[in-house]
Amino acid sequence: MGQAITGHRDTFYAAFANGAPERSVSELLLDLATAFDMKSASFLLMPSKTDDALSKLILLSSMPQDFWNRLDQLSPLPTCQVFNAARNSLLPVTWSLDEIRRQNLLIHGVEPALVPFFREFGISHGIVFPVFSIDGMRHALRFDGDRAPLTQAEINDLAMLAMHFVQTYDRSRYRLDDPTGLTERELEAVQGSATGKTSVEIAAVMSLSDHTINAYMNNALKKLSCTSRTQLVAKALRMRLIS
Question: Which domains does the chain have, with CATH numbers?
Answer without folding.
Answer: 2-173 (3.30.450.80), 184-238 (1.10.10.10)
